[in-house]
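User: My collaborator sent over this chain with a note saying "see what the structure looks like." That's all I know about it. Can you take a look?
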Amino acid sequence: MRRSFGSDNHAGVHPAVFDALRRVNDGDVHAYGHDAYTVDVARRVASFFGPQAETFFVFNGTAANVISIRTACHPHQGVICAETAHINTDECGAPEWNAGVKLLTVPTPDGKLTPALVERRLGGRGDEHRIQPRLVSISQTTEVGTCYTPAELETLSVFCHGHGLYLHIDGARLSNAAATLNSTLGEAAAGADLISFGGTKNGLMAGEAVIVTDPALATGMLFLRKQSMQLSSKMRYLAAQFEAFLTDDLWLANARHANAMAQLLSKGIVRFPDLELAWPTQANGVFVRMPAELVEPLQKEYFFYLWDETVPIARLMCHFNTTEKDVRGFLAVVERLSGARTVR
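Assistant: Without extra context I'll predict from the sequence alone. Here is the result:
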């Protein structure tokens, strides 16, 4: 089977997750998350994010983001996000259709929002003719592979809360951010009121979690999850995956490996004179400007997507199953197809 740098979603499921699913596949328990096992795992996940945090398991990341938005916003309110945000580019209008809110996008040089960028979308507050900003949504790590530092998170959080805004983190790759920062999961999402904590990009089969750190926002979450068709009757199978994730810090081991493979790939890429990194490699994604004539023949041997077809910029994603052989094989094909020797 052809190896893929297309997405960390392309990876399989970690064996420890299968083992955890088998362990809970015995006997009868209460449905819809009311069994003691699911309650315990949810509390363990929440403990990473603060003493008042609550966990709500859902099936996928789009749902985690949309439910977070619905929890924080009325339909006359809006979400400020980067133009590159997943909720803006890759969720088929789900926030607008399902949450009924407007996305207030901001162009950014590196996928990250700052207080100054957020402030550009705060005009018209109190004007009944204008959408009212209520939530700021950021991605950690961002869609272009950059990572918010703790200082950047703190600055943005203080600004948001000082201006009556909630802060949401799309944490589809939060584990990778924590590995990059050498921090806890909570520190990588510090200051957020709502967090979409992802697992499927880091070794889980199917399951994400919405973390609510503000108790005032948690009261309606049970109902919104059900209304959004994300309440699993056999919740223990979602919880089991997160138990495997937490055991022996599997989430961290997987993320560190993916990040390390991206670093290896990035260091190899920059040795080619015709290839250039579009953004610094800070997690498990490598974004590469390359000659247009190289794209198609390279994609025939290793699958990847183009982030920008006009430049072009290739997006190369590593995951917990990416090997050094995969990386070195890719670099060897680049060298063969480009006819260029690497720069020493």
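A starting point for your reply to your collaborator: The mean pLDDT is 95.
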